[in-house]
Amino acid sequence: MEYCEIEPLRADIDAVEGPLLLEFGAPWCTHCQAAQPLIASALADHSSVLRIKVEDGQGRPLGRSFRVKLWPTLVFMHHGKEIDRLVRPADAIAIKLALEKIDSASRP
Questions:
Q1: Mean pLDDT of the region 67-88
Q2: For residue 89, is it within any domain?
Q3: Domain count for the chain
Q4: Who is most buried in 1, 7, 45, 100, counting CB within 10 A?
Q5: Is 32 exposed, middle or buried (0-12, 13-18, 19+ CB in 10 A)?
Q6: Is 90 strand, coil or helix?
Q7: C-alpha span between 57 and 7 (Å, rounded)
Q8: How far from 32 is each of 24, 58, 68, 85, 103, CA to CA, in Å?
Q9: How far apart are CA 37 and CA 81, in angstroms?
Q10: What does the pLDDT look like over 8-24, one tens digit per residue?
Q11: Of 64, 82, 79, 77, nearest to 16 (Cα)?
Q12: Are 29 and 82 in contact (CB under 8 A)?
C-alpha cells in the first residue's frame, strides 16, 4: 500500500464512519519501512478497518492537526474520534490490541 499522493482534509478524516487506521510516515523513513510488516500482520484479522497512509512532513496540515512528531505514528479512530495512538510500534501485538479497540467500538 502506497502513501496518499494528495493529503486528505481533516474534515474528511473526521467524517469516516467505522474503524480507521490513519498512518503517518514517509516512504524513505526506515522506521516506517520496518513497521510495514508489523502493520500488515496485525491488519490480517481486521478486514473491516480502513487504512489510510499519509505522507507527512513539514507544512503538512493533517499531520500537524494530529500533533504528529515522529514516524510512523498510527492513529486508531472510530467514527471520527481518536481511540488510540502508537508511535514507532515495535511489535504487531500492540497494533493488534489497538485494532481490537476500534473494532470493538463498532459492536453494540
A1: 97
A2: yes
A3: 1
A4: 7
A5: buried
A6: coil
A7: 11
A8: 9, 17, 14, 15, 24
A9: 26
A10: 999 999 999 999 999 99
A11: 79
A12: no
Cβ atoms of 33 and 3 closer than 8 Å: no
Q: Look up the CATH number of the domain holding residue 18.
A: 3.40.30.10
pTM: 0.95
What φ, ψ does residue 11 adopt, rounded to 5°?
-60, -35
CA-nearest of 26, 24, 45, 54 to 98 is 45
Q: What cell does 48 get? A: 473491516
Q: How far apart are CA 76 and CA 102, in angstroms?
A: 7
In a domain, 1, yes or no: no
| Within a domain: 4 | no
Determine the structural domain holding residue 41 and report its residue range: 10-104
Query: What one-letter code names the amino acid at 53?
Result: K
Alpha helix (H) residue ranges in the chain: 10-14, 30-43, 61-65, 92-104
Cis peptide before 72 (omega within 30 of 0): yes
* pLDDT tens sequence across 35-64: 999 999 999 999 999 999 999 998 899 999
